Input
Amino acid sequence: MASLAALRSGAGLVTAAVAPPVLPLVAALAPELMTQALAITKAGELSTDNLETDRLKRLLHRITVLAVGPGLGTTPEAVEFAVGLLEASVDGKRLPAVADADALNAIAQHPERLRKMAEGRTLVLTPHPGEMARLAGLSIQEVQANRIRIARDFATKYQLILVLKGWRTLIAHPDGSIAVNSTGNPAMAKGGSGDLLTGMIAGLLAQHPRDPQRAVEAAVYLHGLAADITTRRSGIGGDQHTLLATDSLANLSRAFRFHAQGDSGYCWLQGQPRTRYPDRSSK
Output
């Protein structure tokens, strides 16, 4: 899902690095998607052998943005691979990187290594409140009660971009500035939505490496807008109960070209303005 979202977001070439047993299934998702096999243990889990110099060179060859996390697993070797890969991609190339899902849980086990992962490059973390609680060593209740302060403090402390997901997703930047997203709806709480966001952030960072702040903010905004458009087009009043994360992929193009009527634009607190469909031909 992350790879498909990166493609749909305009990335020219996307490679999904996965375990060999699932590689044929992933390759069948889209003919445009490239794949690369990762080394696994005898138990079929990701192996730290992937951190060997030659394997790393093949893995990172010609890569301009790295997205790590979805589907990695939480075994000790998978954790070490995730953390080691984020550290190794700083050295030399200083690749922009996005960490989500199991990569966040891996970082939470090795917080002392996070500074090196973020040093001298764009690093984006995309936790939901539970993952944020583990990263910050707090309870979920504490995170939810102080979302802006915790997001800002974490982003400035480690000099990274933090996307704290949830109602009114926050994008905190290394300089202390924070953007509050205005798009999205409760249907996005379903599994897979975060994987799409990871891919979209990576895709836009690949196209706008010199403006990472706006690239990440745009990805979050468009991710929510695509979900809003999808619920709106599913019926009068929207259908948030039946929306799947991947349903939004079909409406990413509408989100990218959506604009509100009026010379001064349009600002809304949630979703789309009721007065207009993004595609006038559909009602």
Q: What stands out?
A: Residues 212-233 form the longest helix (22 residues). The chain has one domain: 2-257.
